[in-house]
Amino acid sequence: MRHQDSGPARVLASGPLDWSIVSGITPLVLTLLGLAALLHLLYARDPRWWARWVPALLLGTVAVSVGIALFVDRVWQPFPDNLPTDVVVWIGVVLGSLALGLIQLFRRKRWRPRLLVALATLVALVFGLNQINRVYDQFPTLRNALSALTIHATPLKEVIGSKPLVVAPSGTYLSTVWRPPADLPSGGTLTSASIPATRSGFRARAAWIYLPPAYQATPRPRLPVLVLLAGQPGSPRDWVDGGDIIDMMNSFAAAHHGLAPVVVMADATGTEFGNPMCMDSRLGDAQTYLAVDVPTWVKATFQVDTDASQWAIAGLSYGGTCALQLAVNAPNVYRDFISISGQDQPTLGSFQQSVHKAFGGDAAAFLAVDPLTIMKAKKFPEMNAMIVAGSDDEVYRPQQEKVYAACKAADMHSVSFELLPGGHGWQVWRPGLELNLSWLARQTMLAPS
């Protein structure tokens, strides 16, 4: 078991878009401005404002925020765990700021006071929303927050096509036989494609694919593949925006002469809030899609290594659980896996709910593909596992510890557990992958370090 720091930043901030909005001076300034904006919105000379409006607004905001939390946690139940208390509080701040702003706009009669109210409302909203962002660390910079507008996919037809291959002999690291050309690109390529669900029929969203600089070279090396999964709720693109996958992989490639895995960010949920539990069930054949359809398409579309020892699967939260499931249910496809903040069992809230909704009450069918149940009866001597959790994650950390123990009991070839500072958010998920790229490179015989 290893405890690690989150590690140094890959690139020094080069401008305001790259300043951190989750730590340091920027969120401190935003906090001061946000509090000043809230005080401005609360200000009024009318005694009735303080005696009637403010208490009513406060009670209403609390009631609506608690109502939203109860609806999400008890009725809708899109997540297996409840909304964090601090997120509920900041939702209240956002709603309260909006309500205050609308009321004050109605109360003010002149355009200048109204303009100040509008500005204060905007600042208060940005402050509250960024506080929610700080809980999950999803957008560490404005550049990340704007990446959906600034990062686009290269058309697939421009990156496919055959070239001569550099192939490492069995038991030899690819880096020892690879010689990068002088015109090697400085960065990788991001493309997107709808991977056909030929066998599964699973309704998946488009996948995002990162091709490292070496893949564009002539000849090109035969590279390993990393299938990378997002959480739930989530989408395949989450690793591009919140995960900063392009800079992460480009930095790794720059240190390894252009070499890095081909990264396939596939859809494991079907919709933003979908939860097929990464199984083949009434909820959709997600397992077959990820274990059959995705690998088949990738091998037919790109010049990659086809051996299972060169294929890995990783993911965060739901995706981390899914990575564990796919590895033990399809060890002939994925020989290595990284589970970041995953669960010890796929769930829709409870065992009874999961079995009922997915298998019509057939508990045996559920347990037949449940990873911990499988590992009690089967050994995996060729498999390598990296289990990662946040030190402050009181829900998922204990489950990951249970998964780690189960993997060791299943005699996996290599099993490691890493505890990173942070909770259930990108402050753990991002370094949970980045810090283990060298580990992954060793397992897939890409490079020794």
Description:
The structure is a single chain. The chain is of the alpha/beta class and 449 residues long. 44% of the residues lie in helices and 12% in strands. It contains 16 helices and 13 strands. The chain has helices at residues 25-42, 47-76, 85-107, 111-136, 142-145, 147-150, 238-241, 245-254, 286-301, 318-329, 351-359, 363-367, 371-377, 396-409, 426-434, 437-443, and strands spanning 2-3, 165-166, 189-193, 207-211, 220-221, 225-229, 262-265, 280-281, 284-285, 311-316, 336-340, 384-390, 414-420. The strands form three sheets. The chain has a nine-stranded mixed β-sheet, sandwiched between helices. It has a two-stranded parallel ribbon with strand order 2-5. Helix 1 (25-42) crosses helix 4, helix 2 crosses helix 3 and helix 3 runs antiparallel to helix 4 (111-136). It starts with a strand and ends in a 6-residue tail after the last helix.
